[in-house]
Amino acid sequence: MSERSRSAVLISIVVVSFLLAATAAAIVVTQHLRDEGPVASSIHWKTRPGPRYRVCFLLTHADKVTVSVVDFSDGLIRVLADRELDGGDAPHCFGWDGRTSSGRLAAPGPYHLQLALERADRTAVSGEHVTIHGPEPKP
C-alpha cells in the first residue's frame, strides 16, 4: 500500500470515528432534553372585544419566568410578566391589549407565547397562537 493510500485510510478512520462520537453525543443530549419534559401545558388564547387577549397556561415547575408575546419570527412584541410563578395545577393567566412594548397596536398576524425560565435555563415558544385581524396599524 502506498503512503498516499495509508494517509487516506487514516483520515477516513479519523473522520468516521469523529462522526460516530458526535452522533452518540447528540443522542445523549436529545435524551436529556426529552427527560426534562415540557415547560408548560394547556396553553389557551382567548380573544375579547377591544381588542384584548388573554392567555392561560400551566407551568410544569416553579421558576422565575418571563412571559412574552412574540411574532412568528420569535421577535419580541411585549413582555406580559417577569416574576416567580408556581408549577402545578393552578393556571397562570395574563392579559394583552394587542399593543407592542412601545404602545402601538400590533400589526395583523399570528402571535405566540414565549416562556423564558431562568433557573431551568430554558426558553419555549408555544405552538398555540392568537391571530390579530384588521387593518395595518398607523405609525
Description:
The chain is α+β, with helices and mostly antiparallel strands and 139 residues long. The chain has two domains: 1-36; 40-132, Immunoglobulin-like (Sandwich), CATH 2.60.40.4070. Helix content is 24%, strand content 44%. The chain is built from one helix and seven strands; from the N terminus they run αβββββββ. The protein has one helix at residues 3-36; strands at 40-48, 52-59, 63-71, 76-85, 92-96, 109-117, 122-132. The strands form two sheets. A four-stranded antiparallel sheet has the order 4-3-6-7, with no helix packed on it. A three-stranded antiparallel sheet has the order 1-2-5, with no helix packed on it. β3 and β4 form a beta hairpin. The mean pLDDT is 87.
Please render the helix and strand layout as text.
Elements: H1 3-36, E1 40-48, E2 52-59, E3 63-71, E4 76-85, E5 92-96, E6 109-117, E7 122-132
Question: What are the defining features of this structure?
Answer:
139 residues, single chain, 1 helix, Immunoglobulin-like
- Give the rounded overall mean pLDDT: 87
Q: Would you count the extended β strands for me?
A: 7
The CATH architecture term of the largest domain is Sandwich
- Residue share in β-strands: 35-45%
Q: Main β-sheet: number of strands, strand sense, barrel status? A: 4 strands, antiparallel
Q: What spatial form do the alpha-carbon principal axes imply?
A: elongated
Query: How far apart are the first and last residues' alpha carbons, in Å?
Result: 74 Å
Tell me the helix content.
10-25%
Please report the first level of CATH classification, the CATH class of the largest domain: Mainly Beta
Class inferred from helices and paired strands: alpha+beta
The number of helices is 1
Q: State the assembly state of the protein chains.
A: single chain
